[in-house]
Structure formats: structure tokens, C-alpha cells
Amino acid sequence: MTQARDTLPKLLLQRAQHRGGRDPAIREKEFGIWQSYSWAEYLANVRAFALGLARLGVQRGDKLAIIGDNRPQLYWALVAAEAVGGIPVPVYQDAIAPEIQYVIDHSDSKVVVAEDQEQVDKILELKDKLPGVEHVIFDDPKGMRHYAFPFLRSFAQVQELGREMDNARPAYFSEEVAKGAGEDVAIINYTSGTTGFPKGVILTHRNLIATAENLLKVDRVGKADQLMAYLPMAWIGDTFFSVVVSFVTGACVNCPEDTTTVRHDFREIGPTVTFAPPRIWENLLSQAQVKIEDADWLKRRLAHGLLPVAMRVATLGMEGKPVPWSLRLLMGLGKWLVFAPLRDQLGLRRLRWATTGGAPMGPEVLQFFRGIGVNLKQIYGLTESSAPATLQRDGAVKADSAGPPIPGVEVSISPGGEVLLRAPGLFTGYYKDPEATARTLREGWLATGDAGFLDPDGHLVIIDRAKDVSHLLDGSVFAPQYIENKLKFSPYVKEAVAAGHERPYVAAMINIDTEVVGNWAERRGIPYSGYADLSQNPQVYELIHREVQRVNRTLTPALRIRRFVLLHKELDPDDAEITRTRKLRRRFVNEKYGTIIDALYDHGAREVQVKAVVTYEDGRTSETERSLNLLDVAEA
Q: Which residue segment(s) compose the domain that 382 sits in?
């Protein structure tokens, strides 16, 4: 890494100088039209906002919290803070008040940049509990006309302050950027907090840039590539691809108009490279299955006949086995009649490669997408490793692995089976938490908390979180996430929680997918008043029963699901049941739903009464009471 490329602001300067007005750096869909900004315009906006921050008193080491959807202005704010030595702290835009307060207060953020009125209102409600916040800056002025607070100003006003300072001190910005070094803190990303309060992961510019350069030795990205910025800005995966990879390669980042238009905007742009967690791919799979069921008779028959062939061929390819000529002929027919149109409908027609990570993916989901021609590969990494650590290579994709390490990364397995990493991207520590840092960083190795092993080809195989791997009463190894992923392959299942630790058999609590199951119910004339009513319908239970039987056929007898229940509510981040990145807070869920789990192991029980406290975004709570059916799973 040369001196000119050792920080993100320096990379931006280099991009603007070399291809300033010619190549698009970032696009935003606004009022139905894609607005494009060149690298020169990107830099001009960063420069103006950075100098505006300096005028407001932001100094080196000050923290700047950012909350909102993927907007060019929020990315400019992130890089602008770094340009003057500040440290950006992205916050999940859908977080509830206590979560927002914790991150902003714990990080000692001095400035908050909020996307719009909704996010500003959250901060105003918390302002008395955030004594360290001196300035709140908003981007979208809609609805803000009558907001009059001395600490509140618009993004445009801060940029105007910056332009005034630029006229008076034209060399200041370049001087501040030049002061930056690779070892400076680039960002503090807070973890999703699966086991407690989120921790602030400190990452340097060198961590991020070195990791991106190592990843690009495996998979090429260039200035002609299109990336889609739709994942939460607070997640390291978005920062890594939408900022770091974009700056290193010159690839263009595209911001959707709204969270509700992501699918349509994705199709319009047709990204060439993308990254998404398994939940996104599972949603896309559900969309595809719904579209197939809604198609006419001939298209349905073709899809039902050819998609299993595609998955079989994908499986043979991943296992390194030859594909019979009969299957090759059917694949040729399928590409023309089913697979290409389906990829186009999903916005995947231009993809050269796609990666998934953040949680294990069910093998069936991987088989489906690879079968229809999507070069989908699994990646493994953590916020603490600046995102990617291992990646499957083209032509060497295995359903059960996350691939070999990328260049520069070492993987080791502890005597207890825990995955350890050593890499240039390893974080420097948790903010204000030396004890947790000492537990996680051990003599230059990162203790990931994941249980896994290296297969004979050097591919990393993740079993589950180390603390979650346990045994049934008969001694069978029980990895709940493995079973849950198989259940979530079904388009009708949104979330699943497998139980079985020191129990006689495996049982499951299941969330139905409201949209997909609702569509299924409407086609059959089944009335329902909402999620709770739909989930307890006997016909829906029978539908999910068939899906559980399908999963059981793929499991060894000891691990087959014997009983299940359909939960009365969706697992929700606002209720602390899953994280903002949709990872299960297993310990909390097992305690909260302990009565239901116990009932699943009481053979005399056919239903269970539950009370649930629902937490709304504004902190209000309400209590519901339902009777849930418990169903035994018949042998298929």
C-alpha cells in the first residue's frame, strides 16, 4: 500500500484526479430518475462537508454518528469525517430508541448526521440523554421547516460553511487529508450484539484497504462494475463494498430510491457484482417461487420440471462430478425457457459474481441460484476482520464450505474447535472495552467464536457458533443453525429456531413468511385477519408440516424434527429476538420462549398458552395472549 493510497480520503483524491469528470462514482434514484455524481463531484461534496465540520469545531479523533438509509450524502459525511481526522460511527436506521442512545452515547459522538425528519425526531427525543451531542445535521429538509433548535442545521448549510472556509483557507482540506495515516482509525462499527450490548469495533484505514486489495486478488472488480448500496450502512459489509472496494477499484455505487423500491431498482441497474446476506437470497428465492406459482400452467410445469434438474447439475458441479449428457440437454433447454427469464425477473441478469456471508447459507439455496446460472459464492468474515477472510473460488464452490482464506489471511483451528484468524484486516480493539478485546485478540489471532474445521482442500467449514453446538441426550452432535437453514429453504418459512440441547429429540419454533403464505392462502380462499390468525390456521399447519417432512428426509434419523409450533408473532429486532442483520439472539429467545420449548417436549400437550410483550419503535409495549398448537411430525 503506497503512501498516496493509505487512507480512504487519499484514495478519493486519487480517483478524482485521474478520472474526475469522466466516470460515475455514485448514483441515487430520486423522483424516479437516476442522478449521477462523478468522482470530481463526489470529492467536491466531501470537501465542502468536511470543511463545514471543521467550522463547527470537529477535531481529529471526534466521533460522528450517521443514521439513515443508503444516501450519497451519508457516504459523503462518512468520508468527510475521515478527511479531517474524525471517526464515523454508522447506526442502524431501524434501531429503536435505547439502541440508538447506547451507540451514540457509548461512542462519545459529538455530531449526528441524520437522513430525514424521521431520524431527526429520534435524536430530538433522546437529546436530553445524549449530553455529548453538540450538532445534529439533516439531509432531507422535508417536514423540517418549523424545526428551530440552535444545534440543528441542514447538510446544505454545513456545506455552505465549508465553501466559505475553503475560500478563506484553500489549502486546509489537502493539509488535513495529508495528515492522515494508514494506522488512523477509519471507522467504529458496532456489532449486532447477539449475546449482549453491541461492541464498537475499531478499524483502521490500513485494515480496510489491505483487506479489499487482498480480496481483489481473488475476484476482479473494475471501474465499469456496478454495485448496489442497499444493506444497512451500520453493517461492515456495506462500508466494505460501497466505500472501500468502490474507492480502490473505481466501481460505481448505486443507491435505491427507497427501501420499498430496492427490488425494482435492483432490476433497473442490473449490478455486475453484489454482496448480500443469506436472508436476502432466501427472500429472492421466495420471490422466484411465488412468481412460478402465479405463472400459467405451462410455465409452472416447465419450472417444476427443470429447476430440480438445474439444482442437480449445480450439485454435481460443486462435488466435482461429471454431468450426464441427458442433464446437459435439459439444462440447455432450461437456460432458454426458464433460467434466463427468471434471472432477469430477479435483477440478476448482469451478475459476474455474487457473494453471501454474515451467516451460513442452506445448501439448497446455493444450489438453486447456481443452478439458474448465478455465480454465487460463499464468503466468511467478521466485523473484527474488516469483513472477508475466506472466499470460494470460481470453479471450486462447495455447498458446505466458506472457501479457502483470501491472500494475506491465515486460518487455524483451536484445540476446542474454534476458528482463529490472523490477517492485516484484524481490528485494533473494542472501543472502551479492553477486557473484551483481550478475550478476542490472543497473541495476534482473532478468536471468532465460531466452531469449524478445515477440509482436506483447505476450505473452511463453519458448523455453528461454538457456544451453540451441543448434543442430544443420545450423544448426537446438534448444530441448530444447520437445521434452521434447511427449514428456511422453504419459501413459506421466514425464521426458525431449532431446540434440542440435552433433550431427547429436535423440535422447532417456526415463523411463517406472511407475504408468501398469505399469497398461498388467498389463492385457496382461506380468510385470515393478520399474522397470528394465519399462523394458527390448521391448513397452514399442514402446509408447514409437509415442509418439515421434506427437511427430515435430508437429515439423519437422530436429528429429524419430531415436533414443531408456529409462533404467534414474527421474531423482531425491536423485541431483541434477532439482530438488525437478522441473526438469532439464541440465548434470549430460548429464555423468552422457554414455556413453548418445554411444551414441545411434553407429549401430553397439544397446545400452549403464551403471553408476549411487543415493543414498538417509540418504546411503548403491549401484551398479547394466544393459544398455540403443537404438532407431531409424521414420518414421510
A: 278-419+446-465
